[in-house]
Amino acid sequence: MSGFLRHLLFAFVLALSLPTPCVQQEASTQIYGGGSIFTQPYMDYFTESFQLVRRDDAIVCTYGGASHSLLFLMAKPDLDFAVVDAPLHETLLANNSIAQFPLAGQPLVAIYNLGSSRPATPLVRGSSTPNENKTKTERIRKCKQLLTAEQVLDGATLAAIWLGDVTWWNDPAIVALNPNIALPAEPIRLGHGADRPGGITHSFTNALSILDGRFRAAWSGDGSQDTSRWPQLTGIAGRAIEFSDSGTLSPFVRDTPYSLSYSTFDRAQKTGVDYALMRNSAGAVVWPTVKAVESAISEVSEKLTDSMTINVANGQQRGSWPMCMLHYLAVRSNASTSDCLGINSLLYFTAWTQLTPMAVTKSRELGYAPLSLSFKAKLINNFQKVACNGEKVFDSALLIGTGVRTISFSSWPQEVYYFRGFDAESTITDLSRYNIDFGITARPLTNDESELLGDVPSIPFTMVPVGVAYNLPELVGQGSLLLNLTVLADILLGTIDTWNDTAIQELNPELGDLLPADPIVILNYEDDALSVVFAALSTVSQEFALA
């Protein structure tokens, strides 16, 4: 039986039971924080939903800017948290006793206005929709035009604009990236934010620093890392308009011909402003999608520091968006208060947004890229760094593991959260890197895998049946097809290649006339359950075992 034993492969999180009330009531614990408009859709949805889970807790977030919220957090004891738009430097964290936890990512985009020179084929806008009355051919042609006429930039060119080296829209560097657009002979009018560390300008300049070495040298030349001074550092002082509120950059570009600035993709869409696609380091032109940000996040997961500081930019995969903004929850690492329940609830809220399947799905729907699993694991581990009056406050035990689908934990819906679709190889890799607490596989570990994992034991957990599926329209309503292991082995070996083969007919005498003379088409897919099937077939067929 051990050869057929199926160890589960699953990704799940084991947590304390969550009460789910039917109605809301006034909360007894109030938690106050601030953030920017770029996190407002995310925080509004999840703070409201969280009170349905923890009815005694109310998280109240106002949106006066990420940098301002951070300054208030450091200066005023009555603010419990700040949601910032960039990772905070380790020195700032240490000097101000702040801990930070990543929540989700968004694509940063270059936004622009080509004025009256805007091409006849519209650039991608948040307000544009395809004409449903057009023929399919016309719609395909239109899509191709959009793909070829869309403004494209790359990291080097965008950095050159902000360094002051590219100052006209028809500069050869921009023209080379956009051969299908008639670019105007107009100067580029820049607008930037004056937000300090923690704001969108911080994320944008960090991204440019990673994308371009010259910008990095200018940006960090004095070592201040103060985003309020970056125009002086990069040489565009006097040529760019500064805005104290970075949320006004999109309206500025929308209303100012020949202007360029930066924003999030979501904000650009809502404002109805044009945004550029990007050519990434792999040479691919990519769109600012949630999937593209998830790809970029996955590339830096193993580089995450203990302080959770990481910049998500300039990914090497073809599908990665090159400029990403990672939102963080910043809290005091050792709060002094008479009521520590609010701090515990805030950390519980953070875990809930990361580990609940519904929350992960909703995050994508709202336009925010969820974190990779290794991000989540390190985030949860860092909860232990947060104290209240000198004592640790997070009292929920969480375990994270990975693996394939199973139904074993569905009977505990309030106690278990799980992620699905991980194969044995990725699970074992994550275990070896301490990204997860456990893994559940659909097969025994190999000798090499056991050696890699060291003292990690492999324990039989449960058994589920593994079978094969078929599609024979001729048998609908006529009964089920019967196969045995020997026949199945011969089918996979190619010895039996038609449905009306004698061996199949002998097992199904009542279906003999209905079995078609059609070839058997085998659909291959990679799943650890196949190893269970192959092990079973090898016991009845020596030829299969040697194949």
UniProtKB/TrEMBL annotation:
The name this protein goes by in its record: PBP domain-containing protein
Gene3D superfamilies found in the cross-reference section: Periplasmic binding protein-like II (3.40.190.10)
InterPro entries: Phosphate-bind_PstS
Keyword tags: Signal
Signal peptide per UniProt: 1-24
Keyword Signal among record annotations: yes
Domain of life assignment: Eukaryota
Source organism per UniProt: Acanthamoeba castellanii (strain ATCC 30010 / Neff)
